[in-house]
């Protein structure tokens, strides 16, 4: 989120306004307030769509013979679900799929995915969803809220964009930002 908010100063300012409206300048973020951060949620979802933590996707086993549409699958077949491919599919997200557009989540995941909510799965899906999903997203919202209460930030001129897929997408050379107190 820091990277994208550093690039998109307009969204950083809107997120800051929301955080200051909910928490003010001095009050630390609290649970009820975190749930009221709608813009922050939209920015979080768009960040997770563009740079999914489960970069390579995940595997699922077929336990019994099934039919999906016109295809039959035998038991013991494995499916690879390529999350980054799905999160960057223009048929689902639109022709501007590679642009940072948090507003696409303004009316929820269903509208953002063209009524295909299963297409947004940054932490997996169904009974196999990451157990740390809520913890990770709340921790990120709290951290970003605390930063926005006190600082502005922008990318350093020396920043080199270098997403590096390991288990998750990480910046190979880090994210250098310039931070200024409010």
TrEMBL record:
GO terms for cellular component: membrane. It is a single-pass membrane protein. The keyword Oxidoreductase applies. It is found in: Membrane. The keyword Nucleotide-binding does not apply. Belongs to the cytochrome P450 family. This is Cytochrome P450. Transmembrane segments: none annotated. Keywords: Heme, Iron, Membrane, Metal-binding, Monooxygenase, Oxidoreductase, Transmembrane, Transmembrane helix. InterPro entries: Cyt_P450 (IPR001128), Cyt_P450_CS (IPR017972), Cyt_P450_E_grp-IV (IPR002403), Cyt_P450_sf (IPR036396), Cytochrome_P450_Monooxygen (IPR050665). Heme binds at residue 130. Its main location: membrane. Its cofactor is heme. GO terms for molecular function: heme binding; iron ion binding; monooxygenase activity; oxidoreductase activity, acting on paired donors, with incorporation or reduction of molecular oxygen.
């Amino acid at each position: 989120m820091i990277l994208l908010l550093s690039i998109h100063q307009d969204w950083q300012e809107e997120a800051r306004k929301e955080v200051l409206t909910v928490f003010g300048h001095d009050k630390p973020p609290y649970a009820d307030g975190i749930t009221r951060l709608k813009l922050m949620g939209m920015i979080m979802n768009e960040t997770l769509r563009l740079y999914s933590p489960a970069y390579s996707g995940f595997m699922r086993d077929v336990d019994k013979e099934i039919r999906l549409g016109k295809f039959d699958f035998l038991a013991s077949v494995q499916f690879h679900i390529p999350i980054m491919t799905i999160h960057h599919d223009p048929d689902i997200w639109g022709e501007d799929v590679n642009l940072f557009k948090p507003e696409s989540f303004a009316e929820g995941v269903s509208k953002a995915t063209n009524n295909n909510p299963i297409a947004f799965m940054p932490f997996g899906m169904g009974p196999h969803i990451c157990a740390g999903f809520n913890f990770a997203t709340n921790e990120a919202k709290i951290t970003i809220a605390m930063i926005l209460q006190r600082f502005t930030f922008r990318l350093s001129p020396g920043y080199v964009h270098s997403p590096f897929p390991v288990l998750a997408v990480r910046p190979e050379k880090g994210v250098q930002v310039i931070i200024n107190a409010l």
